[in-house]
# Entry
Amino acid sequence: MVKVSVIIPVYNNEYYLCKCLDSVVCQTLEDIEIICVDDCSTDCSNKILKRYEQIDERIKIIYNTQNRGQAFSRNKALDIAQGEYIQFLDSDDCLRDRDVLESLYAIAVQNKLDLLKSEWDVLENGDIKKTIQYPIDVVGNIYSGRNLLYNLEIYNICARITFSNFVRRKFLTENKIVFYNDIIHEDILYSYDLYYYAEKAMCVNLCTYFYVKHDNTTTTRRKDTEHLKGHLVCINEIIKKDFLNASIEFRYATIKYLIRIYNEIVYLREELKYHIVPELFNDEIKRLYNMLWGDRYLNYISRESIVLNIEKMMQSKRLYIYGAGRAAQELLVILEKYDISIDGVFVTNIENSAKTILGHKVLGIDTYVPSDKSTMFLVAITKKYVGNVIDLLWSKGIENIIYVC
# Structure
């Protein structure tokens, strides 16, 4: 019988993969399977996987036909997993000690747990940094998942990391718990589902995992709208849950869980600055975004003006946008839907402007070099800020101007 299925999604982690796999194959618990999902790696990760597959027959390799991300890879591995319990492991991380799986399995089986949560340490540049320690009066007690979340939240413990969850496989299948595909931060929703459904859950002050922090991890790589989308999807799915018969404690815990996600979105919005436009999301997520920040977002662009001038835009040899604020963001999204590309973005004062807008470099109008008469400028500045923009463009010899706000 397979006691534990270790699931490892792999994508371009050749520098960390050997240490990751070594930490699993050396485990004192031998009745395990190691399912590695190669998500179309372009480095030497696949060669490393094949070498280890020849060394250890417990290793199974699955290949994605296209790059789909961790959520899809984990779900694909879950479909074939045979272990009594599931342990997820990222391919740039490693298990902390040789007896990790044996210890977790013994505790989980003895207490017939659906969910067992353990601690982890951060490993950065060779230094070990302690993350969390579960409250002493919570550790070792058996709760429902909902009560465990409550007891962690009242201590302000953020415990939603996928790899800290040692989970009974049949519990996952019985409750149809999977990862939400094609988003970043899918672990937020997955962990919440574990709390929501688990009948028997426990946390232990046993450090089982090294989270290796480097420049290309999800938490350290450059933030973009995909990070924001991931958080919004998690909020949207959580608020769909049935709370009719939920205890007041679990509702409180859920609110704190949501507030934590909301605060991260606020931080992301500040970091992303000019790069957020609700049109970037599907209708459901756009509606949620507008509910949360509707007072900060308006429909700046006159779609009627776009439709009336669409042929002129398509016929112009050069098409530029004047402005780099929210109106210009909205305009770019609309033009993309019409498959209209632009040749540049200009502003009056580059020092007080975003340096890029949805992938387009923003330039000062002083750098504009006049071209032929067919060049068109779309002025995307709200009326109260427009000032003497039209006169300025005329002074540059630009006559083909359309005001789209």
About this structure: The mean pLDDT is 88. The two ends are 66 Å apart (CA to CA). The longest helix spans residues 248-272.
